[in-house]
Design a protein that fits this description.
With about 290 residues, the protein is α+β, with helices and mostly antiparallel strands. It is built from nine helices and eight strands. The termini are far apart.
């Protein structure tokens, strides 16, 4: 191989050996990654999420090992490695500022874990499910936008990792996997608001399937990491008064990806129950005229 490299490329000295060693390192690390994945994922084909994370992690580790070994091969000792890294780093800092910021963002994401693949997040004005994370960007399957619900639009958003340093991030799934949602129901002043409130309480208790015991257990686990004050995790109906009637607001816990489904079930049940009650009417903007005789 050395003779072939010298005769074909016209190289002499240590360079042919370095080229051969580089090829061996690349092939060996790639083969080791292949064997490792075949062994680790032999019984995990029924879990696409686990397989995806193993493949991504092994790719990053293999690339890092290759870079270190190749740097050792092409540098003369530790001092040469340090000098080469210093020169390369200085040049990259000047010429590739944005990619370096994105790489730093990737390191921050890997270290602090503000979100992971599968989480539903909002960063800046963009909201979606995280479906991929790479060195320079992460990828979202967009939800919302022109779709008036927490459902996908079908668009793929590629967000630079550096956004984690400049934009507020909201995670729908981290630690506590539920969110609060409210449904306001406005009834007329002439309606029996106490009966309506009891009906709504029964509906929201029945149609919001989150068990308070499970929510409390998850809340306690989340409170070990974040400063979370005790709160009532049970469904509740609040009463207030608006210009057009009595406002009854149902507040309940739901899973982020099932919010629209719960809204539909609750409203269908409310319309059915109110339709069977003669003394409950939904309110809407109206004009009333009074004639004085």
């Amino acid at each position: 191989m050395i003779d072939w490299i010298e005769s074909t490329l016209g190289l002499r000295g240590a360079v042919p050996w370095q080229i051969l060693a580089t090829v061996i390192v690349v092939v060996a690390v790639g083969l080791a990654r292949f064997v490792f994945l075949r062994t680790a994922l032999r019984n995990r084909h029924d879990d696409p999420g686990t397989e995806f994370r193993w493949r991504k992690s092994s790719t990053y580790i293999a690339a890092a090992v290759m870079l270190v070994l190749v740097a050792i091969i092409w540098s003369r000792g530790v001092l040469g490695i340090v000098t080469s890294i210093g020169i390369v780093t200085a040049g990259l800092a000047i010429a590739l500022q944005d990619p370096i910021v994105n790489m730093a963002g990737w390191l921050f994401i890997m270290w602090r874990r503000p979100f992971k693949i599968g989480d539903r997040v909002q960063i800046g004005e963009h909201t979606g499910d995280v479906i991929d994370m790479r060195v320079f960007q992460f990828t979202l399957l967009e939800i919302g936008n022109w779709v008036h619900a927490d459902q996908t639009t079908g668009r793929i958003l590629h967000v630079p990792n550096g956004k984690v340093f400049t934009s507020v991030q909201a995670n729908y799934d981290q630690e506590f996997p539920y969110i609060w949602h409210e449904i306001p129901v406005l009834i007329t002043f002439e309606s029996d608001w106490q009966l309506a409130k009891s009906v709504l309480q029964e509906v929201v208790d029945t149609e919001s399937p989150i068990a308070s015991s499970d929510a409390e257990a998850r809340f306690k686990r989340a409170a070990k990491r974040f400063y979370l004050q005790n709160t009532n995790l049970k469904s509740v109906v609040y009463t207030s008064v608006e210009d057009s009637g009595v406002l009854l607001t149902m507040r309940y816990l739901c899973e982020p990806r099932k919010r629209r489904a719960t809204i539909e079930r609750i409203w269908e049940r409310v319309l059915t129950e109110f339709g069977q009650a003669d003394n409950i009417e939904l309110a809407y903007p109206t004009l009333r005229y009074f004639t004085q005789k």
